[in-house]
Amino acid sequence: MSRTDFNTLLEAGVHFGHLKRKWNPKMAPYIFMEKNGIHIIDLHKTVVKLDEAAAALKNIAKSGRRVLFVATKKQAKEIVAEKVAAVGMPYVTERWAGGMLTNFPTIRRAVKKMATIDKQIADGLFENFSKREKLQISRQRAKLEKNLGSIADLTRLPAALFVVDVQKEQNAVKEAKRLNIPVFAMVDTCCDPTDIDFVIPANDDATKSIALILDTVCAAIAEGAEERKLEKEK
To answer: pTM of the predicted model, to two decimals?
Structure first.
């Protein structure tokens, strides 16, 4: 049985693509028609591809591995942060730091720097610093938290990447492909799906569309994690 039906996708506006003049011909297999100068996504294909992606993500979660979500566009940030945090997966919603995957050890050192500062505060050592030093350290800690706080518990490279808007997050996709990390993504009609392993043809601009797709994949991840927990208990 499908996780999401045609009508639910339709109500969320998942079918609305971009202007015809902005389209990427490589998305032709996923386009149903053109209406008033706008491409309409074939939701029957979206249902199939979304189910495939959800099943694969469920298996990743069931195996105990992590999926890194990337969505820095304004209309997706809060949705991703809320839904992905609820299933315990790491995410990036502020800025993709170059080398976040390809230079992962350096990113881990920056995360450890946060932990070091926190320990200094907890141990009372922070009080030994001057007012100026405290301010500098506090600012550094705040900056690290903003950019890397949501991946603080990502101790190894993720098993997969999930992206909202492959055009905006092209650097993240490139890094993942360089390391043979499979990429799942919402792909709109203006995007190139070539480097995406699990294409979910969908409107990546509307908050309702983004929320529905995220609800579906996060539910699959939660199921996988729960099945892993039950197997461990046996």
So the answer is: 0.92
